[in-house]
Design brief:
2 copies of one chain form a homodimer.
Chain A: E1 14-18, H1 22-34, E2 38-42, H2 46-54, E3 60-62, E4 74-77, H3 81-91, E5 100-103, H4 111-118, E6 124-130, E7 152-155, H5 162-174, E8 180-182, H6 185-208, H7 222-228, H8 235-244, H9 246-268, H10 272-289
Parallel strand pairs in A: 1-2, 1-4, 2-3, 4-5, 5-6, 7-8
Antiparallel strand pairs in A: 6-7
Domain Prephenate/arogenate dehydrogenase (chains A, B): 13-290
GO biological process, one term (chains A, B): tyrosine biosynthetic process
Pathway (chains A, B): Amino-acid biosynthesis
Chain lengths: 290, 290
């Protein structure tokens, strides 16, 4: 068994979770379920910290960077992309010299390099992205189960040690995730634009259609329910994510619009074969996914 | 307690379910759960009839219209739109003089009038549309539970008796449906284009995007899973439904494209406020739905 932050002896490790929102709260609950040594919750919102402490989700509460972070072997940043940088900058003086920092940010860009640049000594940042979430936002909506079976993307940068990459991969499995995959930041952002950003945009667009009215709810079935499930998301966080990835998302919107154009053409031409072909293609792909 | 087909004494009624597919099979299973007197399954596929009989989902099997239909107080047509007309035409000579016929067709058009025109005596057709379904197709995918809590649309025509309207509304509740609403056929088709046809088209378009590849599955989260759930549908049935409703669906595609255009503009202009506004609007509407 290794010592220090590369240990996977979870019961011996102290974690700091920065941001007690939907994802951060879920991390804390998953860590509790995993039985780690100690969970430090960090948030600027004292109310949410009290709530997390009262529910025994965290052992200690910090309203920001401070000496209390010294105990953390691992820091998980679950805050807005820009806030990760700010937090790490203020936290560095208090952190263990071999601390491992990871994140859950839905868009990477230059974040890994930017964070690592702030670190000193043997501190290391390794980017991660649990493909987990649910509608809503905030600590009240958090739950350990969001990780169960979810994909977990590890996004190593050139500076990362193999130990850190292995640690975060094991960690993903330990909190319940299924498939763990590795891609670089550029590829991550490109793929995520399709598999996450686009479906969120479509859900928002579907429910925002001019055809929606107060009677819509009496006529919806599963297709509408599922197609709009993620329309209820945190507008501030997601506008950040969308803007940080906007070139990729614009490309995905264009690729998607080409498919809508296929629909428009097939319907205009009353082309049953073209419609069936699109649906057969989709059915095969969907079956391949699950 | 009334006698004849307007009775809601379910245990005394014999039902014929025409089409043992996903929806017809689910009706038969829901009727079994309801404890009706007898269930006659009708299908051209002898294998599926045997299967339904072996599983005790139906009491009697008919491979088409014939004297066996005489016992039916109620006939539920769960076949392709065009097949409903064909079946009723061939069945009329065998049906009870006061039989009630209903359907589950996802598009109405002139179907109610067309079917009623074939009927004689006190036979009555009342159109219905359970907003229930699931991925896949065929008897093997059927289950009584698809009706539980689902909306049920009753589509009365000018010729319908209040007794028939009331009966089908009670019946919807009896098999587990939640909200039962009434609209005429024109309105039904217009609304369904938005609440059902469009989400299915979007799901197919999302998974058919040029960005999809064999690695997509490792990067998907709930938003992609939910957004593509109904991409796996029966291509033949659904091309019929889409074509029969194509004017309405084309309008919905146009209305949806306007929303995508809002996304494109907001992203191009890097307009955080516009993005947040769209998401706030969507979140409010989504919360109002459920």
């Amino acid at each position: 068994m290794e010592s220090g932050f590369r240990s996977t002896d979870w019961q011996q490790l102290t974690f700091a979770v920065v941001g007690m929102g939907l994802i951060g709260g879920s991390y804390a609950k998953a860590l509790r379920r995993l039985g780690v040594k100690k969970i430090i919750g960090v948030d600027t919102d004292g109310k949410v910290l009290r709530q997390a402490q009262e529910q025994a989700v965290i052992d200690e509460a910090l309203c920001g960077a401070g000496p209390g972070l010294q105990a953390a072997d691992v820091v998980i940043c679950s805050v807005y992309p820009a806030a990760t940088l700010d937090f790490v900058k203020s936290a560095v003086p208090f952190l263990k010299s071999d601390v491992l920092i990871t994140d859950a940010t839905g868009i990477k860009g230059s974040l890994p390099e930017d964070v690592q640049r702030l670190l000193t000594g043997r501190m290391e940042f390794i980017a991660g992205h649990p493909m987990a979430g649910r509608q809503g936002s905030g600590f009240g909506m958090s739950q350990a189960e969001i990780f169960d079976g979810a994909n977990y993307i590890v996004v190593p940068a050139a500076f990362n040690s193999s130990g850190a990459i292995e640690w975060v991969s094991s960690f993903a499995g330990a909190i319940g995730c299924g498939q763990v995959v590795q891609v670089d930041a550029v590829e991550h952002d490109r793929i995520i634009a399709y598999t996450s950003n686009l479906p969120h945009a479509l859900a928002v667009a579907l429910i925002n259609s001019a055809s929606y009215n107060e009677n819509t709810k009496y006529f919806i079935a599963g297709s509408f329910r599922d197609g709009t499930r993620v329309a209820d998301i945190n507008p501030y966080l997601w506008s950040d994510l969308f803007l940080a990835n906007r070139e990729n998302v614009l490309q995905e919107l264009a690729a998607f619009s080409q498919q809508l154009e296929r629909w428009r053409e097939a319907l205009t031409a009353a082309d049953a074969q073209a419609l069936q072909e699109m649906m057969r293609e989709a059915a095969i792909k969907r079956k391949d996914l699950y």
